[in-house]
Amino acid sequence: MELSFNSNDGAAVISIAGRLDTVTAPELDDYINARISGIETLTLDCAGLEYISSAGLRVLLRAHKKMSAGGSMKLINVGPIVSEIFEITGFNEILTIE
Amino acid sequence: MEIKLNGRIDSNNAPQVEKGIVEQLGSQSGDLVLDASGLEYISSAGLRILLRLRREYPEIRLSNVSSEIYEILDMTGFTEMMTVEKAYRTLSVEGCECIGRGAKGAVYRLDDENIVKVYFDSDALDEIKNEREMAKLALILGVPTAISYEVVRVGESYGSVFELLNARSFAQILASEPGSFDRCVKEFASLLKKIHSIEVPADKLHDIKPEALSWVDRLGGCMTEESKEQIRNMILAVPDRRTMLHGDFHPKNIMFQNGEALVIDMDTLAYGHPIFELCSVYNALAGFSEYDHEVVKKFQGFDRELSVRFFNAALAEYLGTTSETKLREVTDKARILSYTRLIGRAVQKHGLETEKGRAEVALWKENLLELLKTADTLAFSPNELETEAAKENLPDVLAFIEEHVEPLCLSEKAKMQLDLAAEEIFVNIADYAYAPGKGRAKILVETDENAHEAVITFSDEGKPFDPTAKADPELLIPAVDRTPGGLGIFLTKKLMDGVSYEYRDGRNILKLIKKA
User: Fold this and answer.
1) Which residues of chain A make contact with B427, given a CB cutoff of 8 A?
2) B17, B21, B25: which is closest to B43 by C-alpha?
3) Fewer beta carbons under 10 A from the terminal one: N or C of chain A?
4) What is the pTM of this model?
């Protein structure tokens, strides 16, 4: 998994590429937690995200809860394979996906 | 009763010869052997003597018959009426290049086309016959090998002559042409797979298992009774197979002849589980030389670094996997048998009487004891991975599954779905089955003949737990209220074509089915 971060005036974009699984999920969790203070809108760019398992879903859910407290989080560029997982689990209803 | 025949027997002297034989026989009955070593010619008058003798002595036998006389007897049908034993040609190997040396004999090159294997045991005729029978059997069953076409006398010993045109052993090739490594690995593994694909018919060859048990007996006082019992029980638990095993499969016994690989030295042929074969492959390439690295150089002609690398690459090719976990598992199983065999052999051959021998045995023993700590089975199957149920092994588990579902030609999406399900199940075992302790999991991947579906079976010996019994998570409740559990198994059920659980013989057994 490869992560990168860009922020501008309270708006941040984290790009996630590769596999978000049991092994890599804690890494994303730490990555997000270390960067969201003071951020109002968080965008997760999933263009390079190839795979997500329940461990990854849980990280997204946690981030979503945290951001909902005083801001917002959205996902962009979600590919078809990851999209299917969101649909099956109802995450497409919970998360904001563009 | 043995009578010597000399010179020529034709119509001129036949009556006298017959009279002489009858006088020598007197009134004796029983077996009659006619030693034809001095016989130069026999005409029909002489043959008629043999016919008359056969009436009195139905078991009449001719020995040491020259090729010329044999031809006459063969043409006239006498070889079918009575036992006719050919005389052995005498050969000298003086000045011939010695191209191999094994436990039972040495191999010399006679000329460009022929080699002779000279047996150390001067009474090796039965052994030669046996090896010939084994080679014939192997050849008929589809193993490329060489069969000796003649038995000869070499000094006081016997030898068997093979035709091997322009042949070079893999050992020679590996030692002299570094670029040939990959090809040798491929051919070596494919030949071994070929042998292991053969079912040995009933009452041919012998079962390797009793032999393996005798390796344990040889350990004597070198290992504790407890350790010996553990090894014995593991050997006994190896499933009985009639798989053909070569028994001494290493680069010196594999030859390249006109681009074709063939295996020689067939006297150790047996049947049983392939783990017993891998044990001897490991010994030849790595086990023997573990303490003294020069051993392999002397034996194979190449250094230990190459030898160990060759073993690892050949095993990966043989098992059809690049999974480190799988390779480690099978290697460790082979090593248990290897060390058992090596230590026993050293004990028997007075290896403990020298300082070097003691150091060697100490190293093998240390390795064996380490392996015995966690070992419980020796059998393996190429499509089953046994590993510690720990998250860090997940990538290896997924890679192993992917390799073995290849026949299904799954789409990228289906591969992801299978990955996801396998991840959920394996992580579940890693997190809960043995918590807070540690334990092992087995992953078996099966595909049907028509490659329509794959069945992946996860099993562990942890706490009984049925993940399929868990209620599906409520999907539409707001995010803030959602609990993170239950998603994995839910996804698994949705993405697979079948998920089933049972608890049997102390094991959690979870099956995933994915259709192509």
Assistant:
1) 22, 55
2) B17
3) C
4) 0.74
